[in-house]
Amino acid sequence: MNKYLIVRFSSFGDIAQAMPCAVIIRQQDPDADIHWLTRKDFYDFVKSLPCIDRVWGLERLHGIKGLISLISDLKKENYTHIYDAHSNLRSFIVCSVLRLNFLKVNIIRRSKNRLRRLLLFWFRKNYFPSPFRGAISYKNPLKKWFSKIDFPPPIELAVETAPLSLPQDFILSSAIVIAPSATWELKRWPLEYWSQLVSSSPGYNFILLAGKDDVECDKIAEDNKKNVLNLRGKLSWVQSAKIISLAKTIISGDTGVMHLADIMGKNTIALIGPTAFGHPTRATSKVIETKVYCRPCTKDGRGRCINAKYKKCLRDISPQMVTNQLKAMQK
Fold first, then answer.
1. What are phi and psi of 112, to 5 degrees?
2. How far is it, in rounded angstroms, from Cα 205 to Cα 288?
3. Shortest CA distance to 22 belongs to which of 10, 7, 11, 39?
4. Alpha carbon 38 to chain centroid, angstroms
C-alpha cells in the first residue's frame, strides 16, 4: 500500500484549491493511505475532506522546536510519496529530512515559478497561462505520478454536523453569500459598491462572511439591516464551509471563500482585479473583470496600485454589472 503526504500549511484559499489533489490521489490509488500536513488552525478544515486519512497540524507559535518535533513523528510514517504543495522554507525542510529518512520516497513539488513572476511583476512580461487557475496549477504536478488525471467533480466536505446559529426564519438555501474583505486591501472591491449591490437587491437575503478584524464590513450590514445577516468573526473555517455548501450563490473577490465555493461547484461570482493567480476553475463560476493595461500587478494583493485612478481594475466593475450577473444566475 502506498502512503502519501500532502504538504500545504496555509492559507484557506490555497488549501481549498489544493484539495482536489487528494481526491485525485484517492481516485488513482483507491487503497492509498493519504495524510495532509497543515497549520494547526486549518486542521479541522482539512479533516473535513473525506478522502484524507490523517491530518498533521503544525502549531506555528511553537517555532522551530515544534517543526522538529513534528518531523520526528513524520519520520515514523514510512511515506512512499510526498507532494510539497507549498514550496516554502518549512515545507523544504520537512521534505528534505524525510527524503534522507525514506531513501526511495517519491517527492514532487509545485513550483512557484519565481522567474516568471519576476518577469511579470518587474518587466510586464506574462508567460503564465491566461487566465491562471490556481486549482489547475496544484493538479499539474500529479502528472509525474499518474499518466492520466482529470479534474475531479465538485468536492463535498463532511461539514454537515458543524453547528450553526441562524435566525429561525432564515432560509439558507436561497441566501447569497458575500465576502467583502480580503487579506490585502488592494484586491478588495470598494466597500460602498458592496452596499450598493445589496441595497439594489431587496429581493435577496445576504450572508456576510468576514474575519473578526474586518470591522469595516459591518457598515454593509448597518446600511442594509433588513436583508443582511452579518456573521463577521462568528464562524470557524468549517462553519464557513457549511454556509458556502448550503447557500445558493457566492459573490467574492480573490478570497478563500471564492476558491472554496468554486471547487465545491457552487454558483460563484468572482470579482477579479489586480491579482495574477486568482481565477476560479469550474464552469459554475463566472468571472467579472475589466481590461486595464496594468493588470495583473500583484500575486496576492500586496504592493501598491500604479494606476492614476486608484484600483481602477476593481472600481470599473460596477455594482450594476454584478447585479446583472446575479440575476442571470438565479434564472
1. -90, 0
2. 22
3. 7
4. 14
Distance CA 281, CA 217 (A): 27
CA distance 1 to 32: 6
Residue showing cell 492614476? 308
The answer, yes or no, to whether the previous bond of 174 is cis (omega within 30 of 0) is no
Provide the β-strand partners of residue 69.
Answer: none
Q: Tell me the C-alpha to C-alpha distance, in Å, between residue 62 and each of 65, 86, 245.
A: 6, 19, 33
Strand blocks (E) in 203-252:
206-208, 228-230, 249-252
Q: Taking each helix axis as running N to C, give the angle between helix 12-28 and helix 256-263, from 0 to 180 degrees, rounded to the nearest 10.
A: 20
Tell me the pLDDT tens digit for each residue of 120-168: 999 999 999 999 999 999 999 999 999 989 999 999 999 999 999 898 8
Domains along the chain with CATH numbers: 3-144 (3.40.50.2000), 172-330 (3.40.50.2000)
Q: Report pLDDT for 102.
A: 85
125 near 119, Cβ under 8 Å? yes
Tens of pLDDT, residue by residue over 46-91, are: 999 999 999 999 998 888 899 999 999 999 999 999 999 999 999 9
CA distance to 165, 166, 172, 184, 205, per residue, from 169 (Å): 12, 8, 9, 35, 11
